[in-house]
Amino acid sequence: MPYDRQTLRQFLLQQYRTHGVEKDLVFLLEDIATACREISFAIRNGAFFGQLGSADTTNVQGETQKELDVFANDQFVGHIRNCSRVAALVSEEVEEVIWLKDTVAAGDYIVYFDPLDGSSNLDVNLSVGSIFSIVQLPEAVEVGDDKSVLRPGTEQICAGYSIYGPATTLVVTLGHGVHEFVNHLGTGEFRIVSGNMRVPEDSNEFSINASRYGDWDQPVRQYIEECIAGESGPRCKRFNMRWSGSMVVDIHRILTRGGVFLYPVDQANRGSGGKLRLMYEANPMALLIEQAGGAASTGEARILDVVPTSIHERAPVVLGSRTEVDRIEQHHRKEHDPAVSDG
Ligand SMILES: O=P(O)(O)OC[C@H]1O[C@](O)(COP(=O)(O)O)[C@@H](O)[C@@H]1O
Ligand SMILES: [Mg+2]
Ligand SMILES: [Mg+2]
Q1: Closest ligand to 248 CA?
Q2: Does 59 show up as a binding residue in the annotation?
Q3: ipTM tops the 0.95 cut
């Protein structure tokens, strides 16, 4: 990788100069990047090889925590708490809100994160990642008032993810486009590899866990059947399918070459409102996709407009190329009003 490429710090300082991004947010993002580098280092060094099994603890989702889930969570908490402007943390791996300050002022930050995404891929050495979202409080709140961290995705000022794959990448938005960095093992620096990522409007690639076909509602089933029908079907073109088992990997592919990612609510997960979590999976990915020109929906409404009622709530997720998301939303509308045309 050429050394002349901008480092993460140079990029963030440029955002500070050109877009008035706060210096404290620059430092917070550097702390998050450090946590990601530590997690990547541990994975690469096989720190958990032979221990990739469970940590014999269960998280609030009822999932058995992996050793690496706990390690990754500790890295995030440990590095983020360096920033004195962070009032509270919401982690997939911790049931309650983690309050970090004695008093919380307007302008303080809340950080929501999924310390290790794609945990089921760990045992088989496939790419996993971390996801984060930052909100700035418009007003002072009471420490311990957990309801005050239930902010809609529209209030995010920053979102991103890291992938621990063949390379360690960090993808972020501060509200001015989406930018990709790769970690240079020699120097440990994140250097920019792609500024202003764009999701192509059209696509012929969908991403869904097809083993749940039998559980899908009509609108999703119709959309997938149209894709699979290929040239002789209503879409008159062939579609390809990809499903990695790690949301970070599937969304990165869509930010890189387009496509649509679906994890809908279905017969089997309706009771819990879907599979993926709104605050630290759906919201950050929705902001990134929208910032890159794509669309992000529950199938019925814009994900970023969803008003959360609990910190670990789940949501149906449809993200990616605008044409595909619009079509899936149209199938949902038609289910409520048969008069709606196929278009
Ligand atoms: O096991 P399934 O149904 O394929 O679900 C895979 C999805 O679950 C997740 O692994 C959930 O995330 P966590 O690993 O953080 O719990 C997503 O990354 C992925 O998109
Ligand atoms: Mg996850
Ligand atoms: Mg996780």
Answers
A1: 1
A2: no
A3: yes
